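Action item from last meeting closed. Structure (110 res):
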């Protein structure tokens, strides 16, 4: 977020199962697990979101007021998984995966 949005910050709690360790200021990529049991999908929801706090049940993230309702909806209706970026890492580049072949191909990329 840039300096002009400093007054427009909102904290949203996002439940995430098996959340990886992340401290305040860490960046997180949130992915949605969807589809059906016989055809699951993983799709990026939000990339590079700032973490403000962590608990056993999820993450409190910092977003703008324009984003807040989307994050509240996702927290309530979507199954989210967090991918924590190492400090100084480039912005996330996760793509959608909806088959074992796509998963294998994505895992082989560097």
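Sequence:
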């Amino acid at each position: 977020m840039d300096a002009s949005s400093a007054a427009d910050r909102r904290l949203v709690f996002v439940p995430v199962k098996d959340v990886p360790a992340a401290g305040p200021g860490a960046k997180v990529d949130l992915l949605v697990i969807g589809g059906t049991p016989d055809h699951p999908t993983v799709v990026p929801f939000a990339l590079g979101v700032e973490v403000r706090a962590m608990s056993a049940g999820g993450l409190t993230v910092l977003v703008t007021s324009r984003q807040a309702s989307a994050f509240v909806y996702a927290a309530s209706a979507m199954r989210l998984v967090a991918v924590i970026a190492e400090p100084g890492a480039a912005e996330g580049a996760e793509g959608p995966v909806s088959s074992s072949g796509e998963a294998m191909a994505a895992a082989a990329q560097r």
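Note appended to the action item: The chain has one domain: 7-86+97-108.
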